[in-house]
């Protein structure tokens, strides 16, 4: 049974990377689309504002904690899982697994520039990774959601990497999950080690503000539980 921790009212998987990779291997061999979300401070802040986003997070097949501040919010400041999160070990292990298993991926992003940046980052960081297709501007008029799904299905990638922002991810996945021919959906959740080098990350000042807001909400949540 999966261990869980609760942060801002959301129950998150609390697993070491070996256990996460076991789950991922199971997903690859399933005959359906399983969803993985990297959980960051911003992921949780958005869940405070958007009910559909909270529902999306609650229904993930696996949540992967992506920032140590999420663990620190519940008093976890050391240990194996804390160190693995701080070292961003899961994304590295996942991408090397994809290379070793010759798995193909499809990239989704907000703009062509962002998708190209993510592609370049992955190819430079993980030589041998197989990117089979990509699409951008999901909400734009030039490429409809149906045409993107048709493109994905014509390729049948093993993994979809989503760099879509905020509720764009849940809107796309929750409405179209049964139509998508892939094995795994990985939502990056503004993971800094992936999005910043790829040119997808907000500036450091905005990140600092998010940390401040996150800590304030966590403190408020803990005080409410005491009452």
Describe, in plain words, how this protein is organized in 3D.
By secondary structure, the chain is an alpha/beta fold. Helices cover about 50% and strands about 15% of the residues. The chain has eleven helices and eight strands. The chain has a six-stranded parallel beta sheet with strand order 4-3-8-7-5-6, sandwiched between helices. Strands 1-2 form a two-stranded antiparallel sheet. It starts with a strand and ends with a helix.
List keywords for this structure.
51% helix, 227 residues, two-stranded antiparallel ribbon, six-stranded parallel β-sheet, 8 strands, alpha/beta, globular
N-to-C SSE string, H for helix and E for strand: EEHEHHEHHHEHEHEHEHH
Main sheet overview: 6 strands, parallel
Which class do the helix and strand fractions yield?
alpha/beta
Shape: globular
Total of DSSP H or I helical runs spanning 4+ residues: 11
Percent strand equals 15-25%
Structural Rg: 17 Å
How are the strands of the largest sheet arranged? 4-3-8-7-5-6
Number of strands: 8
Low-confidence stretches: 198-206
Mean pLDDT over the full residue set: 82
Helical content, roughly? 40-55%
CA(first)-CA(last) distance: 31 Å
Short description:
This protein has 227 residues and is an alpha/beta fold. It is 51% helix and 17% strand. About 4% of the residues have low confidence.
